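Fold this: Precorrin-2 C(20)-methyltransferase
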Amino acid sequence: MLGKLFAIGVGPGDPKLMTVKAIETIQTLDVIYTPQADVAKKSVALTIAEAYLPEEIRIEARHFPMVNDLKSKMQQWESISKEIQVELEEGFNVGFLTLGDPSTYSTFSYLLERMDFKFNVEVIPGVTSFAQIAAISQKPLVLDQEKLCILPATASQEEIHHCIELYENLVIMKVKRHLKKILPILKAFDLLGASYLISDASMPSQKIYKNLETFTGDEKLSYFSTIIVQKKREEASI
């Protein structure tokens, strides 16, 4: 009998934000695959889920390079998806941990599109980082007829301009390496005071910057740093 593959969203950082379904599913698995952005460091997703792992489960950490070289990334996606398929063919139930939600800027999506259709796959959603950031700020992401744009910090200046013009609320994800591009755009639209940044949301290392008017961009931030812009509202009360 073929095994089943589960994509499990572990949320933004706090293990208590994992869903009951995610925790219960982990208890049934034979193998957990977990992504590593840095081979020298423990997987963040694994650290979040660690308290819920049964003792007998086998853990397979795999490096997913965070580079611009698409060919290198595609080779790794292909290799790991084949490896997981071998596990499933041998009858193992396999989990793949993802930070936040498996359907939101997740590596799992690239693995899924390479999986043979014969395998049974279940995606278990998780709390996204921007949902947690909105909870921390105690400000809703959207209200009434407002619109929300979610984009990666790698978006071009033109794309960011376009989104600011069209949407009342913006989520700009993983901004650490792109602040020199993003901050001047927000300043040009007079939105620094209407924007806030949270790094490592819900983790012990969490940092909050309530108002970007005094933010220099030189602050030491985590890779997991997100800016939320709410251009028709007063400064967020954090």
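The first helix runs from residue 20 to 26. Residues 79 and 111 are 9 Å apart (CA to CA).
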